[in-house]
Amino acid sequence: MPVLDEARFAELSERHRRELQVHSYRMLGNLEQAEDAVQEALLRAWRGRASFDGGPGARAWLYRIVTTTCFDILRAAQRRGELVVESIADVPWLQPCAATTWPRVAIAAGRFG
Fold it and tell me: What is the pTM of this model?
């Protein structure tokens, strides 16, 4: 399969952007960081698009890149001393966000994309 061209990549990333944002939000607990993580992950995906085989695993491929990006962000915060977790009570859970941030139809369907 040929490397993803710009139009196909844009369509693929936009189709999954919302659910990737929710996934990253759940990992990072901060809406702004989650949006930044998705942007960084999509940039990584664009640069590594030659590794995508073009099959039905596009969603899983993007999720893997977003997950790795979130882990990189968490590790960097830990190295800087910004994320110190000694007990489960110290875990910074989800930052509140407006109900209008995520599409209601996707929430009702149990899917965020």
Answer: 0.74
pLDDT score recorded for residue 86: 61
> What is the CATH topology of the domain spanning 6-108?
Rna Polymerase Sigma Factor; Chain: A (1.10.1740)
Query: Distance of CA 37 to CAs 4, 69, 80, 90, Å?
Result: 21, 6, 18, 22
Cβ-based neighbours of 36, under 8 Å, separated by 6 or more: none
Structural element, H or E, at residue 100: none
Of the candidates 98, 113, 24, which has an alpha carbon nearest to the alpha carbon of residue 66?
A: 24
Residue closest to 46 by CA, chosen among 17, 19, 9: 9
Residue 88 confidence (pLDDT) above 70 = no
Residues 72 and 24 sit within 8 Å (Cβ to Cβ): no
- 94: phi then psi, degrees, rounded to nearest 5: -60, 130
Domain range annotation of the chain? 6-108
